[in-house]
């Protein structure tokens, strides 16, 4: 069973009970992303009071389809995904096919319902054209 409680702390923490499934995907509300790939080496759940728990992944995933794993609950502030490759996203829009790459060693998503999904910056449009930055979407179940 999962419990989410909004804590009134300066860090805007979310107290999570149980063992939630944490999912991450590329926000695809406009339907412009078709597929992608990135190698995730580990996921780090960072506690608001300091400390963290690492989860070894070592797996290729499609960030458009998304990836989920079960973590320990607690007073968590963010989830960090460590990448062992460049993230590549393929899509189609009114301009035709395009490819976007994100070549940072990790991406961090705050666990806070008041914060919008973060843009993955800097990103490069290596083929075609798009003006919409890829955004990471975090889900808790």
Compose a concise summary of this entry.
This protein has 141 residues and is mostly beta strands.
What does this structure look like?
By secondary structure, the chain is mostly beta strands. It has one domain. The chain is built from no helices and 12 strands. The chain has strands at residues 3-6, 14-17, 21-26, 33-47, 52-61, 67-70, 74-83, 87-93, 96-102, 106-110, 123-127, 136-140. The strands form 2 sheets. Strands 1, 2, 4, 5, 7, 8, 9, 10 and 11 form a 9-stranded antiparallel sheet that branches. Strands 6-3-12 form a 3-stranded antiparallel sheet, with no helix packed on it. It starts with a strand and ends with a strand. The model is unreliable at 1-11 (pLDDT under 50).
Number of domains: 1
What separation lies between the terminal Cα atoms? 9 Å
If helices are DSSP runs of H or I spanning 4 or more residues, what is the number of helices?
0
Strands, total number: 12
Helix residue percentage: under 10%
Strand content: over 45%
**What's the oligomerization state?**
single chain
What are the segments in which pLDDT stays under 50 over at least 5 consecutive residues? 1-11
Specify the biggest β-sheet.
9 strands, antiparallel
| Class by SSE composition | mainly beta
